[in-house]
TrEMBL record, chain B:
GO BP field: C4-dicarboxylate transport
Protein task: Part of the tripartite ATP-independent periplasmic (TRAP) transport system.
Keyword presence, DNA repair: no
Species of provenance: Marinobacterium lutimaris
Name recorded for this polypeptide: TRAP transporter small permease protein
Record domain Tripartite ATP-independent periplasmic transporters DctQ component: where: 27-158
Annotated InterPro entries: DctQ, TRAP_DctQ
TrEMBL record, chain C:
Topology in membrane: Multi-pass membrane protein
Family as reported in the entry's similarity comment: Belongs to the TRAP transporter large permease family.
Molecular function as annotated in GO: transmembrane transporter activity
Protein name listed in UniProt: TRAP transporter large permease protein
Membrane spanning residue stretches: 6-34, 54-74, 94-118, 130-150, 170-191, 220-238, 244-264, 276-298, 318-346, 358-384, 404-425
Ranges where the TRAP C4-dicarboxylate transport system permease DctM subunit domain occurs: 8-421
Any Pfam family: DctM
Keywords assigned: Cell inner membrane, Cell membrane, Membrane, Transmembrane, Transmembrane helix, Transport
One of the record's GO cellular component terms: plasma membrane
Function: Part of the tripartite ATP-independent periplasmic (TRAP) transport system.
InterPro entries tied to this protein: DctM (IPR010656), TRAP_DctM (IPR004681)
Amino acid sequence: DDVRVLKFHSGLAQSRPEAAHIEKFAERVKEKSGGSLQVDVYHAGSLGLKEADMLRILKGGMVDMALMYGEYYKRDAPALASVYAQGAITESSQHLELLPTLRSIYKDAYANWDIHTIGGVVAPVFDVGLHCKEPVNTLEDLKDKKVRVWSGHLVDTFKKLDISAQVIGQNDMYLALQTGVVDCAYYLSTVAKTVSLQEVTKYEAYLHPWAASPWMFGVSDKTWDSLTEEQQAALAEAGEETWAETRELAVDPAREEAAREERKELGITVLDPFSEADVNTFVDAAMAAWKEMAESAGEEGVGYYETVSALAREQQK
Amino acid sequence: MALLLSKTLDRVTHALFFIGVCAGILMALMILSSALLRYLAGAPLSFSDELAGLLFVTLAFTTFPEVMLRSEHIKLSVLTDRFGPVLQRVCRFAAAIIFITFAVVFIYESWNFTDFSRQISSRTDVSGLLLWPWMALMPASLGLCLLIELRVLFRGLRGDWAGLMGGEQ
Amino acid sequence: MSWLILSGSLIVLLGTGALLGAALGLTGFILLHFQANGATALAINSAWNLLTEFTLSAVPLFIMLGDILLASGVSTRVYNGLTPLFRCMPGQLLHTNIAVCTLFGAVSGSSTSTAAAIGSVSYPELKKRGYDPAAVVGSLAAGGTLGLLIPPSLSLLIYGATQDVSIGRLFLAGLLPGLMISSGFLLWIYLRSRFGSSHIAPEHGEGFSWRDTGAGLLQIWPLPILIFFVLGTIYMGIATPTEAAAMGVGVSIVIGFLWGDLTWRELWNAFKRSSIMFSCIAMILVGTVILAQAVSLLGLPRGAVDMIAELGLGRYGVLLMVVLVYLVLGCFFDGISLLLMTLPITFPMVVSLGFDPVWFGIIVTLLMEVGMITPPVGLNLFVLSSITKGEVGVPSAAYAAMPYWVILLVAVGLLTLFPQIALWLPEVFS
Ligand code: NA
Ligand code: NA
């Protein structure tokens, strides 16, 4: 009879693999609630909402649910950007060991914004590479190049290595490379094809695995409190199942290999990866920049940094 | 007394407009120097996009009241132009009510927006500038616009319809 | 219900002759309050986000550039120089609007900055020379939309990135249709001036003369310098479009002092004038973005598109419905947000029927262009009406843009009949 419809905001393009998991989650909710609850997923930010506003929006109950990513909320919750950073892991499998800690940090932090967290999508650990117009696979070669990165933390990291980097949004990256505003993009190699990167850069070299915060499913407390217990249970179970399922898929060497082959067929020259010495130099710089970022975010940020980085260093050994 | 208040309103509006024009010039200068620095020195100003954005929002909101004062904001008058003088006055009155309603809601919400940002001390990503003083321009600007419209309406009710209809007294 | 409130409220609020920005914004507030659980607070987020966006700050910069050129007499000299070249062609300098918009479209990704940039220089000059103001505005509103189709294009970038279609192929595909439409616009100006009942361009007694043309063109030597700083720097990768706009401001000041009659006082006045002009546009932008936020939060576009899927039509039936829905949505909506909201449904729907994804990207972009000049909510119309300081109202601007509107729709038809117009170039180059 009465079907309760929840609006779910996701900023990810529908072509991203994560989007399919969210759709699956919506199906699970429908099934588990016996059809009394329907989650309408709006991909690619099609509700017209901006990520930076999401904490306020959920707090005010202006949308029911959202796919949350801690690093987007730097303006309103700076400490959340310091929870996890590039350089925290050097092998994909280390990510899985850090996950429970990350999840509980985000759960508590979002709760302070009147947001209830129910599982989420464990982001796949993708290869991160330098995608360049010329062959580059050493930090030395990068020194006279301009590099596109996606965060302030990475700008600081490269600065420590004497490399000039700037933040350019994903939508502007293609043109910036085409016109030569930058020479290289630091990007998720695995999904580079979806943004046509092969058309503007012909070389890539693997640097390290992507330390991605998990995408959490946030429900506004206003919405959550208005649901029946059965509906709440349906949401929680579905979120948990999606979490478990995506956790299994997160680390997948075969997927990375297949994606690399596909890029080779598209005409990309895949160079030897950056040397171990280079990776260590990069990781040291990234950890130092991470610490500074956490310190500038105040006590809370330092707390997050210390918890996660201690665990990360243990794993790296 | 009323005259003094009215004069003050004009002065504040002009002063704000002056700030707005300067913000626009500063924005152009900053974007220009950032581009030149990147090209000549290979080192762009990392905060320039952010600050340019803030100056941009300043340019917009500080100039609204002045444009309101000159009554140069765009209206759709295709229908009302064909009405008789009485109906035109009714429409002008309705238009004032529409603007006042809009402004009141906007002031209320933007005040909350600003106040909340102040409480959690929201800052810009790169340069860490406090945001609420810039956000406060929104309620302040619409507040001035509201006063200006109320004055026009007040004058109209006292019989000065010319001011109410066009602003060109 | 939401549709009813939307159209009812727009008609009533706009009908009273209220400030455009306030009427649009209040409609948005009403929708947010009554249909979206009182989410009026969201309006402020969207207004703030829009007006702090770096890319949009190109708009006031281009208006400044135009005002400085005007104040220094540089634009007058340039148009004087160009006049002999166009003297014998019916429509005369109106053609420059389309030509310059095409050129500008080749470096700017957005339609609003194209209209603002060209409009603020061209409108006062052409009006002074006796061209029909509405005709000038119509050609500018239409010419401005070319910025969206001719690469680089914001709309094609977003289409490619969200739907996983090659951006390079999309850009190539946009080129020929863009030039085709640009020629269509030029042809219309020619025909309208040659055979139209009323004059839209001033009359000239003299015939074409190589001497005058040469002398005229020699006079405008600073123009290439300016073009280099605005267009060349973008192509050479030295600057983003916003930075190029700022460079243009700097260069126009230098040219204005050295070659024109610019004084410090005039410069300050130019900054003041452009601030006022931009302020008018910003007020409308605030109203538009609040309305857009309300409509997208309610998922209205998605609802409209979902309806088509349920009709069970054939291949071309579905396409026709998609086009119709975009035309209707284009009345209330502009640009990129409309793309983001509808593509997740229209893209799979159309592509699963066997239409080419690259081709559909061009069609959708064309329909976005149409929306920019469709009243009541048409950003290009608003921007240009502001540039004329209301001398040409939004309705007359819309009326003057109608022939171009038809040309854009004819182009959609032609592209459907001959998809090769779009697909030929990408095929040759791949
Ligand atoms: Na373009
Ligand atoms: Na429109």
